[in-house]
Amino acid sequence: MFEKILIANRGEIACRVARTCKRLGIAVVAVYSDADANAPHVRMADEAVRIGPPPVKDSYLSMDAVIAAAKQTGARAIHPGYGLLSEKEAFCRAVNDAGIVFIGPRPEALDAFGDKIKAREVAKRVGVSPPPGTDGPISADNVEFATREAERIGLPILVKAAGGGGGIGMQIVEDLGKLPRALTACSDRGKSAFGDARVYLERYMRAPKHIEVQILADTHGNVVALGERECSVQRRHQKIVEESPSPAPFFQGEAGEAKRKDLFEQAKRIVRSVGYVGAGTVEFVASGDGEIFFLEVNARLQVEHCVTEMVWGIDLVEQQIRVAAGERLAPEVLAAEARGHSIEARVYAEDPAKKFAPQPGRIAKLVWAPAGGDLRIETGVEEGSEVTPFYDPMIAKIVASGPSRAAAIARLDEALALTTLELVGPAGPAATNLPFLRQVLASEAFVGGRYDTLFAEALAKEKR
């Protein structure tokens, strides 16, 4: 087991990883930008190293600075968290070349899944179908070819950046006349965000559901699927509320359970084919009647991993660390069973009434509901913290569980009701999505489990 781990991240995920390290008796090294000098994740650490000014490109995305911090402090391993450098093949290779262990997949897996076009090919090779789309990248300048491909695939289509994730570089096209602009916009966004201007086309499923399977794999050939998560409450293709198991009608009954098990086997086949190691998520898109297609693999820990942890009773961060140290997945992990239901709500400094626009400001007052065995509060801020425009405006994740879905919804709603959050921006009081989250939980579509990825934005418009 490692004696010291550097966490190459910030905010709530840095705090989350640090808690598991401390429970395992592992010393923690934090890195921070000037904007985070007094952040909770820095104070939690045994050592902390400044790596640059606030912009992420000059600090948290600086591979050289992060690796230098690990060498300086003698950290034997680096946990990348999620986002930032977590899925960068070049970072993984640089860490390994420095004689440090990267707590995550091998570079070859990051290469296969970091490119969505390659990921589609991996899935097809093992008999798992992605949505109909182009067989390779398309140049944003080759409008004539792109138009022919769009006609072949059938409208509506989704123009997608080949690299990255998080809903960045994606646009729905329902009219071929708007295709050229979408190609240019997605290509430019992909180049800006991921250094990759390539795009491709994929059929867009109307009112789809977003289902993902959590996997764990060790270096000894063991792979386990720890259930699925329903992640269809989204805005701008980014998740707000996640739950496990999925309440989708097509997962109910004996036929539904057989579909669920088949989905798990598909996910395991995909990751096995590239020798995957560590925690990861295989993402799928589903129609209302249960037609399911492969989307991509997120080769890292997901923001919503806590939902799985509460249902399966497994610390995924601990498993990541143990696998990276060469241990086998324990028998109790391989034979684990799900119990009850769990739901996570992401609390953001954003205004749902203004198309979920971020709301930078200072947290003037913050009181959480009392946490316990059926409630987790995952955060990296505190009263007095600044929500800056430099980073994602997520303030916290509130995760509730219960013996049934109805009990989990009630517990989460109670926790949201007991939360006091006052944000002050440059011009006065600023909005958060806290009231909107309660509207989601109370809505008929959510309670009935019949919501889709269009639901949240439609609800926000309705409540304006």
Automatic annotation (TrEMBL):
Domain of life: Bacteria
Domain annotation ATP-grasp: ranges: 120-325
Keywords: ATP-binding, Biotin, Ligase, Nucleotide-binding
UniProt KW Disulfide bond keyword: no
One of the record's GO molecular function terms: metal ion binding
The Biotin carboxylation domain, residue ranges: 1-461
Cross-referenced PANTHER family: CARBOXYLASE:PYRUVATE/ACETYL-COA/PROPIONYL-COA CARBOXYLASE, METHYLCROTONOYL-COA CARBOXYLASE SUBUNIT ALPHA, MITOCHONDRIAL-RELATED
Name by which UniProt lists this protein: ATP-grasp domain-containing protein
Organism: Polyangium fumosum
